[in-house]
Amino acid sequence: MLKRLFLDWFTWWNGTTLMTRLTLWRRGEKVGEDEFGNVYYRMPNDPKRNPAFKRERRWVVYSGYAEASTIPPGWWGWMHHTTDTPPVAETYVPRDWQKPHRPNMTGTPRAYRPKGSIQAEGQRPAATGDYKAWTPAE
């Protein structure tokens, strides 16, 4: 219990801090949740409370470790005010060219490792001899 309280108070990368939870409870409006478990919120603009904000504030509470690449394209557009329609709305239709979202796997065992990479499995291909090292003009 004490460990969870300590983590909630001082860390932001593995959930919400206590102040974020307080803000969500007081003024946040839950908009929806994506397939990864990330939860999206908005806070309508109130010029009396804070005239510096010209539009509503939007934010995400990540499921697990805070990794921005886990936000799917529809939610990314909504988060960055590219569109005002969140993907959970009935009027949202993904484009026919959109592929299913995949988070960035860099640094994980599922990361892309091209042929010839030191971390790729198998044998490194032999040099083809078409490379000539650069030397400065003398």
UniProtKB/TrEMBL annotation:
Source taxon at top rank: Bacteria
Gene Ontology annotations for the cellular component aspect, listed alphabetically: respiratory chain complex I
Chain segments carrying region Disordered: 96-138
Key words, A-Z: Ubiquinone
Keyword Transcription appears in the UniProt entry: no
Pfam families for this protein: NDUFA12 (PF05071)
InterPro entries linked: NDUFA12 (IPR007763)
Signal sequence, start to end: none
GO biological process, one term: response to oxidative stress
NCBIfam families: PRK08183.1
PANTHER family per the UniProt record, alphabetical: NADH DEHYDROGENASE [UBIQUINONE] 1 ALPHA SUBCOMPLEX SUBUNIT 12, NADH-UBIQUINONE OXIDOREDUCTASE SUBUNIT B17.2
Official protein name in the record: NADH:ubiquinone oxidoreductase subunit NDUFA12
